[in-house]
Design a protein that fits this description.
single chain, mainly alpha, disordered C terminus, SF3b5/RDS3-10, Splicing factor subunit
Length: about 90
């Protein structure tokens, strides 16, 4: 991968620029959360999609936008309990 000038982009620079690119240590929950946030941000950013959802839900565009923004805080419910924490309870 390279920049428009032709200089190569290092993997660390790409991760710093785009947070959702992930790595080998990323959990499934983190990856799915990033995908949901990206999708919601895309719906908010594209007015035509936002108006489509507003018409489909019979809501105002502002209300649908607010719901999507609130959903971005925790798009996939609560994070799963780790195996270390599950073992302590037994």
């Amino acid at each position: 991968m390279s920049t428009p000038g032709g200089a190569p982009i290092h993997k660390d620079q790409l991760k710093a620029k785009y947070i959702g690119t992930g790595d080998a240590d990323m959990s499934k929950y983190e990856w799915v959360t990033n995908m949901h946030r990206d999708t919601l941000a895309s719906h908010i950013g594209h007015y035509d999609q936002l108006s489509y959802y507003a018409v489909a839900q019979n809501e105002s565009i502002g209300r649908v936008k607010q719901e999507f923004i609130e959903k971005m805080l925790q798009p996939c419910n609560r994070p799963p309990m780790g195996s270390k924490e599950e073992g302590e309870g037994k």
